Amino acid sequence: MTYRVCFVCTGNICRSPMAESVFRAHVERAGLHELVEVDSAGTGDWHEGAGADPRTVAVLEEHGYDSDHIARQFQSSWFSRLHLVIALDSGHLEALRRLAPTPEEAAKIRLLRSYDPAAVGGLDVPDPYYGELDGFRACLGMVEAASPGLLTAVREEMAGRAA
């Protein structure tokens, strides 16, 4: 059975496609690419159909990650097929909870940085959209720091489902 993870930010052009690319690389390095599907979306439809922000693409490519992406809006109906919905900040967390059709579906939603045991100063990944390239690099650092913990959690949940 395929385990499905979807990262969600505001417009699906900065943080969530970055998290999708980084986590997909972790999944591939772990040899789980046939068992774990990684995706992303936005809470809004402002950028639907567009590629990732050029600064996101530049930072991903600078660090050896894939940057192929088309933005789309998260749909409430997706909860039934997803195992984890990863919000990039507390605003997304609340928006997703409002979209969740049931308490069981809402329980699938987590903040990305909750998987980083060294996270300090809050669990939000700040939106780099209105800033410079350094903000995108900082975002990448936070995503990279949380990805190993998220991968561990996914592995544990998959093992629990197989037992």
TrEMBL record:
SMART domains, per database record: LMWPc (SM00226)
Stored InterPro entries: LMW_PTPase, Ptyr_pPase, Ptyr_pPase_sf, Tyr_phospatase_low_mol_wt
GO molecular function: protein tyrosine phosphatase activity
Keywords: Hydrolase, Protein phosphatase
Keyword Hydrolase attached: yes
Record bears the keyword Lyase: no
Catalytic residues identified in the record: 9, 15, 127
Family in the record: Belongs to the low molecular weight phosphotyrosine protein phosphatase family.
Protein name: protein-tyrosine-phosphatase
Native source organism of the sequence: Streptomyces nodosus
